[in-house]
């Protein structure tokens, strides 16, 4: 949806969950020392100003990364995530927030390739400029990321991490993510796929976890974080989930330590919570 701009929500609680998980996936793949492809189907602008523009006006980051910024006793996965955000803020003043592409570019091993897709013209232009000096490694396209997957899978190095993070502002996004995951698994069954989704009081949002389970992936992990109680009406985002197909075997233990701390520190009322389910043969 071309009206959606992630800058309005940069650094909020949903970004924190998404990026904590993403960093662990990237770190694991990089630890193998072999090149891989990172494919981001809905990339946004790559990084965001928190001290000016939409993020400053809405201030959602204050109840996300802002809650973790000065914490000294974080579990390792949260400390690692905050460490990377600090690389974008070397003066220790939280003014900028990295998008998924920035995190990936900071972690991938040499000879890896990043494939970044964004339809919004302004965000695409910012993204293209941001990576203009790294064109041997980073490819940026103003195209439909879901459709682009068909031409990218299977990847040349036979190793890939795909992040799907659409806006979900149109109901069609819910159907398209499951279709894209199913098609991608048929093309490249051993890839790692990470899907972020919102928790909203909406029929499509409630139905999505069941549709993901119906994909019948051999190995999967499902993490959910709620920062407040479920609203009685359409009260907006109260949590989010990450569904990972073919996760590393280390991820459940890492998130088992991180999720309780996230729920406690990002709570917006007295009813935060989390769930962690997985099946890794």
Describe the structure.
- The protein is built from 10 helices and 10 strands.
- The protein has helices spanning 13-31, 53-58, 65-68, 76-87, 100-107, 121-130, 145-152, 172-187, 203-213, 251-266, and strands spanning 37-40, 47-49, 96-98, 113-117, 138-141, 160-164, 192-199, 220-226, 239-245, 273-279.
- The chain has an 8-stranded mixed sheet with strand order 5-4-1-6-7-9-8-10, with helices on both faces. Strands 2-3 form a two-stranded antiparallel sheet.
- Helix 1 packs parallel to helix 5 and helix 7 runs parallel beside helix 8 (172-187).
- The protein is globular and about 50 Å long.
Explain briefly what this protein structure is.
By secondary structure, this protein is α/β, with parallel strands linked by helices. The protein has helices at residues 13-31, 53-58, 65-68, 76-87, 100-107, 121-130, 145-152, 172-187, 203-213, 251-266; strands at 37-40, 47-49, 96-98, 113-117, 138-141, 160-164, 192-199, 220-226, 239-245, 273-279. The chain has an 8-stranded mixed beta sheet with strand order 5-4-1-6-7-9-8-10, sandwiched between helices.
What top-tier CATH class fits best?
Alpha Beta
Shape: globular
> Could you say what the CATH architecture is?
3-Layer(aba) Sandwich
Count of alpha and pi helical runs: 10
Contiguous low-pLDDT stretches (5 residues minimum) are none
Taken in chain order, the helices and strands follow as HEEHHHEHEHEHEHEHEEHE
What's the N-to-C terminus distance?
38 Å
CATH fold-level assignment: Rossmann fold
The total tally of domains equals 1
Q: Which value, in Å, is the CA radius of gyration?
A: 17 Å
- Helical content stands at 25-40%
Strand content: 15-25%
**CATH superfamily grouping:** Vaccinia Virus protein VP39
């Amino acid at each position: 949806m071309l009206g959606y701009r992630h800058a309005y929500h940069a650094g909020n609680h949903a970004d924190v969950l998404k990026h904590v998980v993403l960093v662990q996936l990237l770190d694991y793949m990089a630890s193998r020392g072999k090149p891989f492809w990172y494919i981001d189907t809905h990339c946004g602008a790559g990084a965001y100003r928190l001290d000016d523009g939409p993020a400053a006006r809405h201030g959602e980051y204050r109840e996300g990364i802002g809650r973790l910024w000065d914490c000294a006793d974080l579990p390792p996965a949260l400390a690692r995530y905050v460490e990377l955000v600090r690389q974008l803020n070397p003066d220790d003043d939280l003014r900028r927030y990295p998008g998924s592409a920035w995190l990936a570019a900071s972690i991938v091993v040499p000879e890896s390739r990043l494939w970044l897709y964004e339809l919004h013209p302004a965000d695409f232009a910012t993204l293209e400029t941001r990576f203009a000096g790294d064109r041997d490694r980073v490819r940026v396209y103003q195209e439909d990321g879901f459709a682009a997957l068909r031409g990218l899978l299977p990847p040349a190095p036979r190793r890939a991490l795909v992040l799907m993070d659409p806006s979900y502002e149109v109901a069609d996004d819910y159907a398209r993510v499951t279709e894209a995951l199913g098609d991608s698994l048929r093309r490249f069954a051993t890839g790692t796929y990470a899907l972020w989704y919102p928790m909203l009081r909406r029929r499509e949002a409630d139905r999505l976890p069941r549709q993901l389970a119906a994909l019948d992936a051999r190995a999967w992990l499902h993490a959910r974080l709620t920062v407040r109680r479920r609203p009685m009406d359409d009260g907006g985002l109260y949590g989010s989930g990450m569904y990972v197909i073919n996760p590393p075997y280390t991820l459940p233990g890492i998130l088992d330590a991180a999720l309780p701390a996230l729920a406690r520190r990002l709570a917006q009322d007295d009813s935060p919570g989390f769930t962690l389910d997985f099946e890794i043969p």
